[in-house]
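User: Can you predict the 3D structure of Right handed beta helix domain-containing protein? Sequence below.
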Amino acid sequence: MNRRARLLALAASLPLTIGGALATAGPASADTLACGSVITTSTVLTHDLVCDGTSDGLIVAADGVVLDLNGFTVSGPGAYATPFAGVRVTQRLRVTITRGTVTGWQSGVVLNEAWDGRVSKVTAASNDQGVNLAGGGRHVIEKNTSSLNGRDAIRLGLSTGSLVTQNTVSDNTFGIMVADFSSNNTVSRNVVTGTRSVGVSAFGGAVATTFSQNQVSGSWDDGIRTSADSSGSVISQNTTTSNGGDGIEASNATVTRNLATSNGQYGIRGLAGVADGGGNKAAGNGEAAQCLGVTCGAP
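Assistant: Sure. Here are the predicted C-alpha cells for Right handed beta helix domain-containing protein:
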C-alpha cells in the first residue's frame, strides 16, 4: 500500500469529528478546571478546588452534562461569607452532579429552573443550604449526605415531579423541606436525624407531596409535618422516633401505616383535613392518648 492509501485508511478508522475535534465516548478529564469554570461538556474533576467565593464554584452551562466530582471537594469561604453556590445549574436539561463534596457555600448544589437533573452521591456539608431545587423539576436527588447546613439540608421550591430518595440527612436546622407551591413531589426512603427544627415538611402552598418510608428521629420539633397551607399530601409507612414534638403532625393529608414511638408529644396528631388511611401504630409517646385525629394501634 502506498503512502496516500495508508493515510486514507487511517483517516477512515478514526472517530467522526464535530467542529473539527475528535468525538470522544467518555467524559473529559479536567486537570485545569478552576473556581468559576463554566462547564459545557461532561467532565471529571481531578483535584480539590478551594474558592474565594467571588463566584459560583462550578457552573454547568449545557444540556446533558455529567459532572463527576470524582471524590474531590469544591470548597467555598463559608456558608455566610458568599452568596454563591458550589455547583450551579440554570435552565438546563438532564444534568448529573455526582461523587464529591461541596462545602462552605450559600448553597452546595443549586438546580435553578432546570429539568430532569440528578444529584447523586454528593456530600453537602456546612453550607447554608445543602441542595436547593429552585423551579423546574422532574429531578432525582438520591444517595446524598447532607449535614451541618445552616438552613435546609434539601429544599424544593417551585419544583414539580421530583424524587428525593435514599439520602442521609443529619444535624441541619431544617431537614427535607417542600415549599413555595411545589407540586407532585415524592420524599421517600430517606434517613433524617438530629434536625434542629422539623425533620421533613410540606408547607407554603405545596401540593400533592408524598412522604413514604422515611425514618425521622431526633428532631427538636416534629418529625414530619404537613402544614395547613399545604394540600393533598400522603404520609405513608414512615417511622418517627424520639422527636421533640409530634412524630407526625398532619393537616390536609392522608395518613396510613406509620409507626411513631417515643416522641415528646403525640405519636400522630391529625388536624384539619386529615384522612385516616388506617394501619397507624404508636407507643411510648409523651401524650397518653398517643394519637389525635387518627386511630393508632399498638406496635
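The CA atoms of residues 79 and 105 lie 4 Å apart. The two ends are 82 Å apart (CA to CA).
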